[in-house]
Inverse folding.
C-alpha cells in the first residue's frame, strides 16, 4: 500500500484525459446544448409573436367586417330610396299619360260627334230636300225656293 | 485461492491476495500494472463514449448517446455554475473528467470479486486488483493534480505576492503571522489528502466487505452481497460526486480574491 511511481503514471493519464475532454469533448457538446437552448427560446418567442399577430389580424378582420356591414346597409338604403323615386316617377308618368289619352279620346269623340252631326245634318237636309222635292216637285221650283231650304237647314244645326 | 508468495492459507491469505496489486519493479519505482491498466482502459472508455457523442452532436433532436452525454454535461455544468462564479475553460471539463473517471473506477467494485482474478490466473497473472480507487496511488494522483491546479490558479489570479499575503496575514492579521502561515499550510495540504483518503477509504472498505462476504458459504452470500451491492451503487456515485464538487469548490476558492 505504498505510494510509488504508479502515482506519476496516473497523473499523466489524468492530465491526458482532462486535456482531451477540454479540447475535444466539452466544447462541441456544450455548444450544441447552448445552441438548442437558443433555438428553443427563439421558437417560443416566434410562437408568441405569431399569437400576437393573430390577435391583431382578428381585430383587423372585425374592423373590416364592420365597415362592410355599414357600407352594405348604406347601399340598401340608397337602393330603397332610388326604388321609391322610380315608383313615384312612374306613377307620375302614368297619370300624365292617362290624362293625355283621356284628352285625346275626348277630342276624338268630339271630332267624331262633329262629323256625325255634319253627316246627319247633311242626311237630314238631303232627306228634307228630297221630301220637299218630292212634295214640291210638282208645284214648287227647286231653284226658286233654294234660299228657304238653306235657311231651314241652317236652323237645324 | 491464496498464493505461495504469501504462504498464508485460508481467509487471511484470500483477503491479502485480493488486495495485493499486480506490481512490477522495486521500491519507489514499483508500478501497479493493474491500476495503470484498468484506469487507462476506463479513461479510454469515458473518452470514447463522449467523443462519439461530441462527433455526432447536433442542436437538433439528440440521439440516445448524445442525450446521455448532454445529461451529464448539464449536470456537471450546473454544479460548476452553483459554486464557481468566475470564467474558466478548464474547470467544467475537469469536473466532468473527474466525475466520470472516478465513477468508472468505483464501478469496477460492483463486479464479483473473483471474476477478474480468476480470468487473470487463467492467463497466468498472479495478482489482480481491478478497482483503481482502492489504490492510494490512483486517488492521490488525482487529488495532487487538483492540488497543483489550486496552487497554480491561486498564484495566477492573486499574483505571487497576493497569494503569499493570504497565506501570511489571514485569518488573524499580520501580528500572528506564524500561526496564520501554519494554519493556512495545514488547510491547503489537508485538501488533497482528505480528497484522496476519502475516496480510497470508502472504496477500500467496500471492496473488503465484498471479499469478506465472498468468504462465507455460498448460500449466505447473495443475502449479504445483494443489499451491499445496491448500497454500493449509491456509494460509488456519491464518492464520484463528492470528489467532483470538492474540486470545483477548492478551485473556486482559489479564484476568489480577498
Amino acid at each position: 500500500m505504498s505510494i510509488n511511481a504508479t502515482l506519476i503514471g496516473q497523473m499523466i493519464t489524468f492530465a491526458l484525459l482532462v486535456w482531451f475532454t477540454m479540447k475535444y469533448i466539452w466544447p462541441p457538446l456544450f455548444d450544441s446544448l447552448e445552441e438548442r437552448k437558443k433555438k428553443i427560446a427563439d421558437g417560443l418567442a416566434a410562437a408568441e409573436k405569431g399569437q400576437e399577430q393573430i390577435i391583431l389580424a382578428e381585430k383587423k378582420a372585425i374592423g373590416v367586417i364592420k365597415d362592410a356591414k355599414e357600407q352594405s346597409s348604406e347601399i340598401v338604403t340608397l337602393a330603397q330610396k332610388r326604388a321609391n323615386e322610380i315608383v313615384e316617377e312612374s306613377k307620375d308618368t302614368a297619370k300624365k299619360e292617362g290624362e293625355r289619352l283621356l284628352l285625346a279620346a275626348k277630342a276624338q269623340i268630339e271630332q267624331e260627334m262633329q262629323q256625325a252631326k255634319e253627316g246627319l245634318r247633311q242626311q237630314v237636309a238631303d232627306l228634307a230636300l228630297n221630301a220637299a222635292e218630292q212634295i214640291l216637285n210638282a208645284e214648287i221650283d227647286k231653284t226658286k225656293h233654294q234660299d228657304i231650304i238653306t235657311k231651314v237647314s241652317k236652323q237645324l244645326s | 485461492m491464496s498464493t505461495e508468495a504469501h504462504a498464508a492459507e485460508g481467509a487471511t491469505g484470500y483477503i491479502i491476495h485480493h488486495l495485493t496489486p499486480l506490481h512490477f519493479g522495486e521500491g519507489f519505482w514499483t508500478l501497479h500494472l493493474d491500476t495503470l491498466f484498468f484506469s487507462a482502459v476506463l479513461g479510454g472508455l469515458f473518452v470514447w463514449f463522449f467523443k462519439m457523442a461530441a462527433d455526432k452532436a447536433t442542436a437538433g433532436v439528440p440521439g440516445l448517446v448524445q442525450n446521455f452525454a448532454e445529461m451529464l454535461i448539464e449536470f456537471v455544468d450546473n454544479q460548476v455554475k452553483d459554486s464557481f462564479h468566475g470564467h474558466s475553460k478548464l474547470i467544467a471539463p475537469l469536473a466532468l473528467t473527474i466525475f466520470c473517471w472516478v465513477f468508472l473506477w468505483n464501478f469496477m467494485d460492483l463486479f464479483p470479486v473473483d471474476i477478474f482474478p480468476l480470468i487473470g490466473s487463467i492467463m497466468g497473472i498472479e495478482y489482480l486488483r481491478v478497482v483503481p480507487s482502492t489504490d492510494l496511488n490512483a486517488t492521490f494522483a488525482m487529488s495532487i493534480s487538483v492540488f497543483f491546479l489550486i496552487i497554480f490558479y491561486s498564484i495566477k489570479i492573486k499574483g505571487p505576492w497576493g497569494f503569499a499575503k493570504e497565506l501570511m496575514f489571514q485569518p488573524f492579521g499580520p501580528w500572528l503571522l506564524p500561526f496564520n502561515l501554519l494554519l493556512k499550510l495545514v488547510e491547503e495540504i489537508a485538501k488533497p489528502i482528505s480528497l484522496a483518503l476519502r475516496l480510497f477509504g470508502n472504496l477500500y472498505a467496500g471492496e473488503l466487505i465484498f471479499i469478506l462476504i465472498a468468504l462465507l458459504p455460498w448460500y449466505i452470500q447473495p443475502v449479504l452481497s445483494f443489499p451491499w451491492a445496491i448500497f454500493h451503487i449509491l456509494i460509488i456515485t456519491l464518492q464520484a460526486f463528492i470528489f467532483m464538487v470538492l474540486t470545483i469548490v477548492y478551485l473556486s476558492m482559489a479564484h476568489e480574491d480577498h
